[in-house]
Automatic annotation (TrEMBL):
Protein source organism: Ciconia maguari
Keyword Ribonucleoprotein: no
Lipid bilayer topology: Single-pass type I membrane protein
Domain Collectrin-like: from-to ranges: 24-226
Record's keyword terms, sorted: Cell membrane, Glycoprotein, Membrane, Phosphoprotein, Signal, Transmembrane, Transmembrane helix
Origin superkingdom: Eukaryota
Signal sequence coordinates: 1-17
Record-given protein name: TMM27 protein
BP GO terms, sorted: positive regulation of amino acid transport
GO cellular component: extracellular exosome; plasma membrane
Lineage: Eukaryota, Metazoa, Chordata, Craniata, Vertebrata
């Protein structure tokens, strides 16, 4: 029995090597930029991190398919580089010598992308699945409805217009009152000033009170008396 197991292990290893290799069918390349994302708090990529990655992929496959058959052993990693890039495939748990179709793996990764990113403290830009497009985050809904914002802007414009018209009206009224006062002062000043004709000052005729000529007044007294 032991001899059979020893003979089987190399065969399985060779089969796994054929399943997981660059550009293999249903294989995906992953690139991590841990130093770029975390700086001085960057962690080292080691066997523990590899196990966590396998566990997250197995979790994504379970959650996507609704089955609990996928294990960490079904996630194979290969061609791991020091700059933290590698390829991975997911094997079929029932056969274990074939891989899960890439479309299913892609759908599972896209469905759980945020959970995978959070596990490694990374984002879509620093944890890249090169053949899997990034998932778009749901649009952020404003706390204030759009119609209320538009209504507020229109209301502000109306109020500003009313204030502008009131201010302009007050200024024009003050200007008219000032011009009227200046005109009256000029008329009063003109009435009080004696006119000058041929260099001889003459009294201004008061049209309201009239003016009596002394010559005619003397004649009237002379002829009217009996």
């Amino acid at each position: 029995m032991l001899r059979v197991l020893l003979l089987t292990l190399p065969v399985v290893a060779i089969a796994y090597a054929e399943l997981c290799k660059p550009d293999a069918q249903n294989a995906f390349k992953v690139r991590l930029s841990i130093k770029t994302a975390l700086g001085d708090n960057a962690y080292a990529w080691d066997a523990n991190e590899e196990y966590l990655f396998k566990a997250m992929v197995a979790f994504a496959m379970r959650r996507y398919s609704g089955k609990s058959t996928t294990q960490t052993s079904n996630v194979l990693l290969c061609n791991v580089t020091d700059r933290v890039s590698f390829w991975f495939v997911v094997t079929d748990s029932s056969k274990n010598v074939t891989t899960v179709p890439g479309s299913e793996v892609e759908a599972a990764i896209r469905m759980n992308r945020n959970r995978i990113n959070s596990a490694f403290l990374l984002s879509d830009k620093t944890l890249q699945f090169l053949k899997i497009t990034s998932t778009l985050s749901p649009p952020v809904e404003p706390s204030t409805p759009v119609w209320l914002i538009v209504f507020g802007v229109v209301l502000c414009l109306i109020v500003a217009g009313i204030v502008f018209l009131v201010v302009v009206g007050i200024q024009q009224r003050k200007k008219k009152n000032k011009e009227s006062t200046e005109r009256e002062n000029l008329e009063e000043k003109g009435e009080a000033t004696a006119t000058v004709e041929n260099g001889i000052p003459c009294e201004t005729l008061d049209l309201k009170a009239g003016h009596i000529n002394g010559v005619f007044a003397a004649d009237d007294e002379r002829f009217t008396s009996l």
